[in-house]
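in:
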């Protein structure tokens, strides 16, 4: 079978982490099957224009004019197709994606779109052009995003794309409910995956409690709540050290707020894959303070390294948190977040590395998740199939 994968975000020089897990999943799929895959890169972020970012948009326009169509083999059965295309807000001429020439793409048996827009929108056009089925995996939360709401209704721009799919996948039960409540569409639950052969355990020890958090410094990611929780922990005499990685508009403010704790917190920029793995290995507890998550990749990466977590009950983590794996705290409640960290720290011996890692392998490993996806691909490719 030949399968075209359409990520809605894609890594590029200005943001090498954008949509990287889409690419990682594509690599895993070809590794665990004999199908041939094409990965469409149309400059989802790299050539996006915005009136609010005029200077950046001019640079994107200049780069687009210099770009050319290219193909490259990422692995033996995974080929990247690069067709640079300008895009902008979905409210204006469908983000210019209606102008994308789908006839330039190879003939395939199935299209697999990551997220309802722009991925599923393009997938629906390609499916009509080639007379083939398509599958959509929704990752975005809240669903629908505010940009795709018209009053209390879901924009037809994404609703029609979802309704035309042979199958719609949601990465968490929280996201499943949001999709059903807003569209009436039944979805298949398949979580995200983690490379359990890469994110592995390593014995390290410290006299202090070692915390790790990696998140964009935005309000939605709960960084202000974590900063307040840390002050509470310090006031209660907890001897801890936090490695806090990430970038974002609130970082300077958070660093200022945390100046009294400068001896207990190390701020760093975004970490690459190897740096992140080392940080997971060298912590005792991973902390995720978000106010909303449709899933949470960092939690399963921590689990793959055998580490327990404290997370907020913000949607996706409800599926991940179980006894012996980690604790959930209410969203936007710094006191509860501090208490959960203190509770886990006092009972750390009850969170066994191998138990955490075994659970992660059984539910989130590449082998398990890829097989679930491949089952869907094969079912929808059958005549008259619709799931």
């Amino acid at each position: 079978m030949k399968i075209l994968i359409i990520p809605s975000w894609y890594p590029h020089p200005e943001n090498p982490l954008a949509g990287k897990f889409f690419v990682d999943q594509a690599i895993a799929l070809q590794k665990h099957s004999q199908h041939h895959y094409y990965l469409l890169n149309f400059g989802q972020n790299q050539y996006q224009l915005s009136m609010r970012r005029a200077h950046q948009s001019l640079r994107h326009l200049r780069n687009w004019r210099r770009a050319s169509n290219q193909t490259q083999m990422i692995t033996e059965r995974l080929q990247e197709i690069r067709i640079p295309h300008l895009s902008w807000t979905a409210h204006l001429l469908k983000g210019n994606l209606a102008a994308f020439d789908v006839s330039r793409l190879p003939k395939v048996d199935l299209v697999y779109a990551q997220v309802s827009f722009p991925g599923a929108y393009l997938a629906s056009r390609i499916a009509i052009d080639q007379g083939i089925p398509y599958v959509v995996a929704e990752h975005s939360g809240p669903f629908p995003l505010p940009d795709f709401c018209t009053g209390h209704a879901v924009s037809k721009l994404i609703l029609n794309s979802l309704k035309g799919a042979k199958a719609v996948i949601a990465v968490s039960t929280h996201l499943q409910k949001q999709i059903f409540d807003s569209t009436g569409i039944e979805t298949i639950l398949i979580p995200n995956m983690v490379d359990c052969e890469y994110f592995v355990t390593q014995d390290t020890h410290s006299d202090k409690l070692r915390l790790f958090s990696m998140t964009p410094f935005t309000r939605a990611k709960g960084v202000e709540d974590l900063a307040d929780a840390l002050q509470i922990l310090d006031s209660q005499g907890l001897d801890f050290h936090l490695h806090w990685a990430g970038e974002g508009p609130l970082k300077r403010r958070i660093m200022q707020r945390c100046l009294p704790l400068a001896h207990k917190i190390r701020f760093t920029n975004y970490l690459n894959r190897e740096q992140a793995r080392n940080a997971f290995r060298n912590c005792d507890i991973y902390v995720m303070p978000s106010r909303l998550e449709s899933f949470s990749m960092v939690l399963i990466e921590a689990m793959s390294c055998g580490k327990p977590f404290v997370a907020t009950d913000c949607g996706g983590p409800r599926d991940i948190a179980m006894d012996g794996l980690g604790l959930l705290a209410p969203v936007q409640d710094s006191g509860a977040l501090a208490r959960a960290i203190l509770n886990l720290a006092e009972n750390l011996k009850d969170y066994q590395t191998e138990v955490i890692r075994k659970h992660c392998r059984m539910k989130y490993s590449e082998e398990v998740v890829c097989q679930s996806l491949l089952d869907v691909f094969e079912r929808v490719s059958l005549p008259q199939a619709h799931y």
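note: The longest helix spans residues 116-130.
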